[in-house]
Design brief:
It is built from three helices and two strands, in the order E-H-E-H-H. It is mainly α. It is globular and about 45 Å long.
């Protein structure tokens, strides 16, 4: 059975510690619309990773990604630590979406 999934959030913060508007939002909205129109189950990774990043804050969120070649944090991709943390959220979403009611 197909399952749609929204993108994970990019972990870019403003100087005061709020997540910046994300260029992936239009794609996230399209997946939500497609899931609603077709009845295909959807993993809501955008919202759960957004909550994760907001609860961790900028410094701890940077630990979820690798460093770029310039030594700055990559706030789009995941390091092994980030893979484990986001993987746990994916597992929870799979349980939420695929468990019989």
């Amino acid at each position: 059975q197909p399952i749609l999934t929204t993108s994970i959030v990019r972990r870019n913060f403003t100087p005061v510690g709020h997540l910046k508007p994300d260029c992936l939002v239009p794609f996230v909205e399209q997946v939500r619309t497609l899931a609603a129109e077709t009845g295909v189950p959807r993993l809501e990774l955008y919202q759960v990773t957004r909550r994760q990043a907001e609860s961790l804050g900028p410094a701890a969120s940077d630990q979820l990604g690798p460093l770029n070649t310039d030594g700055k944090p990559d706030r789009t991709h995941l390091s092994p630590k980030g893979q484990a943390a986001v993987g746990a959220l994916v597992s929870q979403e799979l349980i939420r979406v695929c468990s019989p009611s």
